Each structure stands twice: as structure tokens, then as C-alpha cells.
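task queued by scheduler; priority normal; single chain, no ligands, no partner chains; default sampling; output format set to C-alpha cells
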Amino acid sequence: MRQNKILSLIGLATKAGKTMSGEFSTEKAVKTGAACVVLVSEEASENTRKKFQNMCTFYEVPLYFYGTKLELGAAMGKEFRASLAVTDPGLSDAIIKELANRDERR
């Protein structure tokens, strides 16, 4: 049940036009300071994971590895996505909170 909450928040952010997805757009969001949180699929390649890990650390953007490419894509109404950035502070906070709750339960 918890997992759907995160995905529906991503869907909400997408409908509001507050997400950027795909490697290029996500990277641009981080580098321009637009990204409030970055989500990278747990299925993403080691290369992609490392790239975003380094970039988000450097630009001080919270980064989480979450979900499958299909889940992230479906939440955004697209095919599949390995990475996405949420650019709305309120929705980002809600997503981070849900992810923190998920981690505490493990």
C-alpha cells in the first residue's frame, strides 16, 4: 500500500508539470537548481546510478533509488523511466517523507 503513495505523488507532480524525466532532463534539472528531489530506478545501470549519485551529492539534491523503470514510467503516464526529478518543493517533501517512512519499516 505504501509504495502506491509514492507513485501517486509522482503522478500528481507530473500532472502539475512539476517533473522532468529521462537522463538528460533530470540532469538539466539538477544542474539548473530546479530539482528538489531525484528518483532513480533500482534497475538503472551502475553507470547511471553512479552518475546521479555524484551529481546529486555535488549539487546537494536528495537522491533516492526507488521502484522499477516500468513503475516510474507508469506513474508519469509514460512507458518507462530510469530517472526523474521533482521540481515542486511541497510534493518533493511529501515524497521524501514517504521514502523515509518506507526505509524505517525495513
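post-processing summary
- The CA atoms of residues 7 and 75 lie 5 Å apart.
- Residues 2-105 form a domain with the 60s Ribosomal Protein L30; Chain: A; fold (CATH 3.30.1330.30).
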